[in-house]
Amino acid sequence: MNPILSVKDLAVEFATYGGSVKAVRGVSFDLNAGEVLAIVGESGCGKSVTFQTLMGLIPMPPGKITRGNAPFEGRDLVSLSDKEMQGIRGKEISMIFQDPLSSLNPTMTVGNQIAEVLIKHRGMSSEEARNEAIALMKLVQIPEASERVDQYPHQFSGGMRQRIMIAIALACKPKILIADEPTTALDVTIQGQIIELLRGLRKEINMAVVLITHDLGVVASLADRVAVLYAGEIVESGPVGDIFKKPSHPYTLGLQAAIPNPLKPEKTDLKAIPGSPPDLFSPPTGCAFAARCPFAMEICTRENPPIFDLSDNRKSKCWLHHKNAPSNLRAEVAHA
User: Fold this and answer.
1) Which of 78, 80, 184, 316 is most deeply buried (CB count within 10 A of its CB)?
2) Contact 305, 318 (CB under 8 A)
3) Which residues neighbour 31 within 8 Å (Cβ) at sequence distance 6 or greater?
4) What is the mean pLDDT of residues 188-204?
5) Res 267: pLDDT
6) Helix H segments across the chain?
């Protein structure tokens, strides 16, 4: 399958008074049409920065792309000018941001905010855009859309505001939808409704979805493939079922161990990953996870591991997959 987006060795730095922060350190992945790719990892690992960079939303400076490219249908997103990106952003690639209240304009009705995209990118008249805005509000299951189209964001609940953000993102029927924490701060019932909405819309318009989240439960219910980020690098990737059933990287094992299991006794303690992520002002020369890894070997602190191909669809950035790695450590990871 030919990917609709192929990101290759993307690296992003930020200039600060304290030095240069290497936020993204060589991220590579493919995104196929119609699939859901989940991006998971701790806060600060580079998830949002990666995709805001691809969308042209990172100010340059203080941001700086130091290497890499991102071909999207014959165009390299990394090398496009801001004017060229305006023709793609919102039209062919859309993004749902983390906080729908701060992302919506409090001085504009929700209908006008949806219509604005339709007028700019699809050349609709004001009346056509208003009618289409109502249709989009119905599509994302806003009740009484014809009446609520003239209301303001503060008149909507958190879940409804998130639906408005989805309606804006879908206004031009994009080929890629980037959903950055789309269920954050929503209660469990609303989370389920948003997941079902995204699942249905993805099938309806054959849209590729990038799901950026901390919630592995959301990943399990919606994603096709998973990429695990740590310290600005993808340390493991593969089909969602394989990642959950048999993770191959110690960091992924740590993330899974920190998930509450309702089938276990009430007093079972959660297993936190010890230590803290590395300082990205001066990243370690070896594996970024070595200082926190219970399976770390001497080579892990000296050399950054390559990406090992475990199968056609599985990749892991860990020295434990080297042919000379101790078999007892490999066995411990396999049975963890």
Assistant:
1) 316
2) yes
3) 3, 4, 5, 6, 7, 37, 176, 208, 210
4) 75
5) 64
6) 47-54, 82-86, 100-103, 110-122, 126-139, 145-148, 158-170, 188-205, 216-222, 240-245, 250-257, 298-302, 327-335
Q: Residue 189, Cβ neighbours under 10 Å: how many?
A: 8
Angle between helices 158-170 and 126-139 in degrees, nearest 10: 120
List beta partners, residue 213.
40
Q: pLDDT of 85-114, one tens digit each?
A: 888 888 889 888 877 667 788 999 999 999
List, as one string, the DSSP characters of 281-303. Answer: TS--SS-TTGGG-TT--HHHHHS
Residue located via tokens 């906080």: 99
Portion of the chain with pLDDT greater than 90, in percent? 34
- Ranges of CATH 3.40.50.300 domains, the chain: 1-92+174-270
Residue with tokens 């019932």: 189
* Domain 1-92+174-270 classification at class level: alpha beta
**What's the pTM?**
0.86
Polymer length of the chain? 336
**Beta carbons within 8 Å of 263's beta carbon, 6+ residues apart:** none
